[in-house]
Amino acid sequence: MKARNEADPRSHERLDAFLRIEEASEVMGREASLEGVLQVGLGYLRDLAGVREAALLKVRLQDETAELTPDILPQVERLQEMGASSFSDGLSDLKRVEVLREGVEGVSLLKTQTADLQFTILGELRYGGILLLWRVSTALASEDLDLYVRQWQLHARWATRVAEAQNLLHIDDLTGLYNHRYLEQALDREIKRSQRYESSFCLLFI
Length: 206
Description:
206 residues, alpha+beta, 14% strand
């Protein structure tokens, strides 16, 4: 029988996991772009949960199906390229638009003929969400993994909304081109760059 003051090793593991999740959340909070949040999140998913196989895809909701595009974010290093039969089976199931239309909070489980998969949605579906799909891992307790993924979702949504706000500030609604505000900022940036490197630049009006 254990002494009452003897610590349960599981409590130490849970505390360590919580501290790592908090650390991951802080690091993601310092990222200014969705791509940065995704890159950091994938790294911690690998380190925390031992995930070695994952797929990252852009989601575009159509009338009847969900279009899933694997190469929409080439600058984000994937843990593994798509191609495994288990991922293919999972994607066939997820293409039913009702699975993704309402979004996913935390981690969801998807059973296929070849493997058990977990998935979540990052970002905002209305702007084109990011589907993350990976093989089930037991390296991290399910409740800790769910907590981590929910933190990741919060940061991804925030990054998506900031990017959309920047577009609203700098893009003309009628033409879809950069507006006068963006021109002023770009000119100021290039003038300072020219002064810093003692070089010249030109401005071309068409």
